[in-house]
Write a structure and sequence with these properties.
By secondary structure, this protein is of the alpha/beta class. It has nine helices and eight strands. The strands form two sheets. A six-stranded parallel beta sheet has the order 2-1-3-4-7-8, sandwiched between helices. It is globular.
Length: 227
């Protein structure tokens, strides 16, 4: 099956290298999506540019599973909204989709038109507990500042058929139980309306593509095979 892999903030497509390698061994066709403004040197890219890149990948694939990580869970959900008949399923790793009218990822300060990686103090605790100092240094060195036009782009959702697309919420630094509590508390309004929502646990921090790539690949392959 075609499995599109969309990295979260500060990540370029190479973040999926180890996961993609393991998926190919399992007979699937992983497609790490290169996002404008995250690895191509552009600082003027917009959220619309990133959505267009994802939809180009969807259109080139055969009913793919679309995987979004962290903030890019919203990009995966936007793909389901724009192509509800072409997307076989959506897997959300360590995040939840924004709602119509939300800003995409206005989480940290913008400097000179970009949102740089804020440093590890912002991710102390479960997010980074499984990253050693060498891994943190490597991440910081490769982190790509996110253009303001992406981070402060406005989410637009228009097709309610997106709620028919099967969704799997992969829970790394939080548990399925916590996610269900957030859902019941109204903190995940888009997921509350999906007609098929499953929860899957993975014992990792926020970036399992680096710390548990084989496990993440096997988990996503299992999701794909169940669609």
């Amino acid at each position: 099956m075609d499995i599109l892999l969309i990295g979260g903030l500060w990540l370029d497509a190479s973040a999926w290298d180890a996961v993609a390698s393991a998926m190919r061994e399992q007979g699937h066709r992983p497609v790490p999506v290169a996002l404008p403004g995250q690895g191509d040197g552009s600082t003027s890219a917009t959220l619309d540019d990133q959505v267009a890149a994802v939809l180009t990948a969807v259109d080139a694939a055969d009913r793919p599973l679309v995987v979004g990580h962290s903030a890019a869970c919203t990009l995966a959900w936007l793909a389901a909204d724009a192509r509800p008949d072409a997307v076989a399923g959506v897997a959300l790793v360590g995040g939840m989709p924004g709602s119509d009218g939300d800003l995409y990822a206005d989480f940290f300060d913008v400097e000179d038109g970009v949102m740089p990686f804020p440093g590890w103090h912002a991710f102390e605790g479960p997010d980074s507990a499984d990253l050693d100092e060498e891994a943190k240094a490597s991440f910081s060195a490769r982190a790509v500042p996110v253009p303001e036009g992406v981070s402060r782009g406005v989410v637009r959702l228009t097709d309610e058929r997106r709620f028919d697309v099967p969704v799997t919420l992969v829970c790394p630094e939080f548990t399925p139980g916590q996610a269900k509590e957030w859902l019941e508390a109204g903190q995940m309004p888009e997921l509350a309306r999906t007609r098929r929502l499953e929860y899957v646990d993975i014992d990792s921090g926020h970036w399992p593509m680096f710390t548990r790539p084989a496990e993440l690949a096997a988990l996503l392959a299992h999701v794909a095979e169940g669609l």
